[in-house]
Amino acid sequence: MQPAEILDEARAILFVDDEASSRKWFALTFGDEFTVVTASGVSEALDLLGKRGHEFAVLVTDYRMPVQDGMNLLRAVQRDFRHLVRLLATAYAEKEVAIAAVNQGKVLRILEKPLDETPTREALREALAMHRAQALERALNESRVAAMRETLGFLAHELNTPLATVRGYVNAVAVRHQPAGPDTPPGTVQFQEDHPGQLIAALESAERRALYCQSLVSTFVQSARDAYPGAAVQTVSAAGLVRSLLDEYPFEGDERSWVDSELSQDFVLPGRRDLLYLVLCTLTKNALHVLRGREDPRLRIELGREEGVAGTPRCWIRFVDNGPGIAPDVLKRLTREPVTTRAGSGGNGMGLMFCLRVMQSINGAIEVESELGAGAGVWLYFTRFETSA
Q1: Cβ contacts of residue 89 below 8 Å, gap of 6+?
Q2: d(Cα 17, Cα 316) in Å, to the nearest integer?
Q3: What is the CATH number of the domain that holds 360?
Q4: Distance (Å, rounded) from C-alpha 241 to C-alpha 275?
Q5: Does residue 24 belong to any structural domain of this protein?
Q6: Which residue, of 51, 62, 331, 388, is most buried by count of CB atoms within 10 Å of its CB?
């Protein structure tokens, strides 16, 4: 649910009083500005909340009522309907009532009966404003938690493949170990290779993947440090981030030679470095995968600026490859749902969806252009940026 939907959902005020005249006066007096629903006692109020609790933002309850008093209702609401902002109306200004209302019922205000229209209206406005602020904060927190959960899941997925490759290389070295013979000098370890340089190449490849995993983890650790209050705001340029990618990405074989870049039109990126770095890694991985086995494979990464809609400037990072291109039926679904053309090799289509969510979170966008048989281009558009000095 989006924050705006939450703010629109709960608006009504529930007024609880055993006196019919008080309920009628409250509904007539404040019904011009607020949606007012009344209940004659605790049981009726709890029944209403059980059925329509999501509609209510504020509870105003009388204290002195037969069978169960207002404190019983406040305690029940504090336990089961914590989103309600609570007000207590009472003609009895005993100190104990006020203390109990604050400590047990978590009331915003205590209103003295008979209610006066002006201060009561002000209290209702304050209570609704507080409810909106609390609802927005809850929605933002839920959004942050969902984004963090999704990010950590995707990070785990990104780390899993290179770590599995490291284990494979280490195992390949271990199984080629030869037991020491009677003439083997002390301190000498022997391995058997299928071809010269095989084990060194395996160890170097394992090291590259381990460094890549380390770079991902260290980036997220830095983001966690930056999140502490008072931490200096960390910025990163688009060119700097692309250079980090080219230095740290675990290219297979001669894949690094496939990639060139044009980074002269630099700009400062908005948003968190860790997420944007993961976006660039994902797009690089996708492009390299489709280029494998192609004649003269090429991937170019470029930076640029242009005028967007209504002349609004925007900057972009573009990935262009000369791969096989994307079929039209896949292309039109690509940024709307998880789609993959390599399910057999572990693809699930979530990579591009993750990239899209990251870009949307910073008011950016992703556009994909492709013609079957003529490669593909992926644009990351940024409308919030600073030009680089």
Answers
A1: 17, 60, 61, 62, 63, 70, 110, 111, 112, 113, 115
A2: 61
A3: 3.30.565.10
A4: 11
A5: yes
A6: 62
